[in-house]
């Protein structure tokens, strides 16, 4: 398993991919999501999409974990509201790989207004003790608020 990095991580409404390369269209990129003023929480957000551009060496098989966490005002994690693993499969080209991937985050239950961090993580093994841990590869933020 080669080293994997994230160049771009963007929350959006719809990711379209087409063509031989493939070309990616990111529609509805907006870091603010408003809900009706009379909304009661918790509320389910039906669909979010996360576009991620990966760079790696020696191919990039394995999986990544995508989490959505509600943040405290100081930026620390308050609640983990979504967690899902996604498989990655890409063949290396001359020892490196570039992979554009769109992840569909369905039925995210948000407990209230606030700022949310959408993170992409990958399991990595520590060299000094052989244990594995999840390392953050990329993060994007989303603000949910009631309409005025």
Low-confidence stretches: none
Please list the strands of the largest sheet in the order they lie side by side. 4-10-9-6-7
Terminal residue distance: 49 Å
Instruction: Report Rg.
Output: 17 Å
**Quick one: overall form?**
globular
By DSSP, the count of extended strands is 10
Question: Could you give a short account of the major beta sheet?
Answer: 5 strands, mixed
Helix run count: 0
What sequence of helices (H) and strands (E) makes up the elements?
A: EEEEEEEEEE
Mean pLDDT: 88
Structural class: mainly beta
**Approximately how much beta-strand content do the residues carry?**
over 45%
Helix content: under 10%
What order do the helices and strands come in, and which of them pair?
Layout (H helix, E strand, L loop, with lengths): L3 E9 L1 E5 L4 E5 L4 E4 L7 E15 L4 E10 L5 E12 L7 E15 L3 E12 L6 E15 L2
Parallel strand pairs: 4-10
Antiparallel strand pairs: 1-5, 2-3, 5-8, 6-7, 6-9, 9-10
């Amino acid at each position: 398993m080669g080293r994997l990095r994230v160049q771009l991580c963007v929350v959006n409404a719809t990711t379209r991919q087409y063509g031989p390369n493939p070309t990616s269209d990111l529609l509805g990129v907006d870091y603010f999501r408003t809900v009706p003023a009379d909304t009661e929480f918790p509320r389910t957000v039906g669909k979010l999409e996360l576009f991620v551009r990966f760079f790696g060496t020696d191919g990039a098989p394995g999986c990544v974990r995508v989490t959505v966490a509600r943040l405290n005002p100081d930026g620390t994690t308050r609640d983990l509201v979504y967690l899902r693993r996604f498989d990655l499969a890409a063949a290396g080209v001359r020892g490196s790989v570039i992979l554009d991937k769109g992840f569909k985050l369905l039925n995210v239950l948000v407990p209230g207004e606030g700022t949310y961090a959408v993170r992409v993580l990958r399991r990595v093994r520590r060299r000094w003790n052989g244990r594995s841990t999840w390392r953050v590869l990329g993060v994007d933020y989303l603000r949910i608020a009631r309409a005025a």
